[in-house]
Design goal:
Layout lengths: L1 H10 L19 H15 L10 H4 L2 H15 L1
Helix pairs in contact: 1-2
Length: 77
């Protein structure tokens, strides 16, 4: 989780990613941010995020995003 929080903080240091739960809904993460984030996550966590999982619910909080990463990683095992 700390690795993910580090990536998010690099993108938006002014945001408290540990408590924010509406990153997409509130416009904190724009579409370009999400594309960059997906690229970094795929590189750092060695996962591939399927297009079907690129939905606001999975990107609205660090916890939701981390849960997605874990789910994908478990499926790849």
């Amino acid at each position: 989780m700390e690795q993910l929080l580090g990536i998010l903080r690099e993108m938006h240091p002014e945001t408290d990613f540990e408590t924010e739960t509406n990153l997409v809904d509130d416009g904190i993460l724009a579409s370009f941010d999400i594309v960059m984030l997906i690229t970094r996550i795929e590189e750092e966590f060695d996962v591939v995020i399927p297009a079907k999982d690129i939905v606001p619910e999975n990107f609205n909080s660090a916890n939701a995003l981390y849960a997605l990463i874990q789910k994908i990683a478990e499926q790849d095992d």
